[in-house]
Structures are given as C-alpha cells and as structure tokens.
Design brief:
single chain; 245 residues; alpha+beta; seven-stranded mixed sheet; 20% strand; disordered N terminus
C-alpha cells in the first residue's frame, strides 16, 4: 500500500511539473524571442558604439540605379532620452512602447554633398507592445507623415554643421517587431539648403520622382543607411543570443 501511495504521488508530481512546463511554453513569446528582447533592450550600452555605427559604412547597391555608396561617420551623439532626441509628436507616438534611450550618429557621403542622421530608439516594450506599434505605423502610414520626422544631429565644423530641422529632406522610420527597437534615418543637403516639403524615402525613391530630394538620391541615403544599421544590430543581437553547441 505504501508503495502504491508513493507511485501515485510521484505520478502527480510529474504530471504537475509537466503541466507547469506546458503552461510556461504556451507563452506568446518563445524563449528565443524573449532572449532577443532581453539582449536588444540592453544593446544601447552592451554593444560598442563603433559596432552599431561603424566609422565607415558601406552601401553596396544602395544608391539610385543600384550604385554603391560609402558613408563616413562625422560624430556620435551622446546617449539621450526620447524627449531630447525626438520631436514631441514622434516621442508621444512611440510612448506606448516605453521609449527609453536614443543613440544617433551623423554621416556624410563620399562627395560630402549629403548628410544623414541615423538613429536607434530602444524601448521598454514587450513583443505585444512592439507588434502593436508596428501595426499602427503600417495601418496609419505614420512612417510617411511629415509631422513625425526624426530630428537631425548637426555636427560643428563638418559638412553637417547646418543640418537642422529645416534641412530635413527625406526620412525613414521602421518599427521592429522582433526587437524592442525603432530604426530611423533622416537625410538632407550638406550645403544647408532649406527643404520646404520633405519626402518619405519610399516616395523619394519612386520611379519618376522629380523633387530635389529624389533627384539627389536622398531617399536612397535615408533608407540605405537605416537598412544597414538595422542589419548590423540584428546580426550582433543574433550572435549574442545564439546558444552554444
């Protein structure tokens, strides 16, 4: 009888453990996703800035007509909060995801005729929050709204010295749903000329676009740099979350 009782208790404990394990594994975010979010949330201080924003960034095929681009970093902005680095309306729009840190750097192209600020917004949001934000941006086309333009980061004594808000000509904003990060880039002319009607990158890159930003390839500059900085971030986080053999 004692042996039978022990067997029943043992089965009960095993069953309870299995049920608990099943309940945990039934989470909306799998372990890999949780790990990527954990690493991604800390990436602003755990990954070297020279890795996130290389001193030289190559954009093979990133220019108009598939032309190659090479961008040189002018300066990296100090780590800042969203209220400092982003326009108020954009900061408000990102608030549901818990905007925490913004890292930015400004680059110039090989001819020093264009300048681009590329940024990474690190949030406190979980998978659901980032997916909701990504869906909202897509459904409401928030990435095309000129009142949600990212801010520039001007750099004294450089081609980007006059790169202010009125010089913003094209931009790209992308909410990542697999990581707690928003990637953006904003481009303009290095000569400081004012742009009255900025164009989102996809429209500036469209066939037949005739605006000054489009003809100068500034849409390609914004999208190309955002794509490559995002790729660097994803690659590094994948390396950090890879399980040992």
């Amino acid at each position: 009888m004692a042996a039978g009782v022990c067997a029943v208790l043992g089965l009960g404990l095993i069953g309870g453990a299995a049920t608990g394990s099943w309940l945990i594994s039934d989470s909306t975010a799998d372990p890999v996703a949780r790990s990527a979010y954990t690493v991604g949330r800390d990436a602003w201080h755990s990954i070297p800035v020279d890795t996130l924003f290389p001193r030289t960034l190559k954009g093979n095929g990133a220019g108009p007509g598939g032309a190659d681009r090479v961008w040189t970093r002018l300066a990296v902005a100090p780590d800042s909060g969203c209220a400092t680095a982003l326009d108020p309306l954009l900061a408000k729009t990102l608030r549901p995801a818990g905007c925490a840190h913004v890292l930015r750097a400004t680059y110039t192209d090989a001819t020093a005729s264009s300048v681009t600020t590329v940024g990474l917004v690190f949030t406190e949001g979980d998978t659901d929050a980032m997916r909701a934000l990504s869906t909202r941006f897509a459904d409401e086309h928030l990435d095309r709204r000129a009142d949600l333009l990212p801010r520039t980061y001007p750099v004294d004594n450089s081609p980007a010295a006059a790169f202010g808000n009125r010089q913003r000509a094209s931009w790209s904003v992308r909410v990542l749903s697999e990581l707690p990060v928003v990637v953006y880039a904003v481009s303009g002319f290095a000569d400081g000329r004012v742009t009255a009607s900025p164009q989102p990158a996809d429209r500036a890159m469209a066939s037949g676009a005739t605006t000054a930003a489009a003809q100068a390839g500034l849409g390609h500059e914004a999208k190309g740099m955002a794509d490559r900085v995002e790729r660097v971030l994803r690659t590094k986080i994948a390396d950090l979350t890879e399980k040992p053999e």
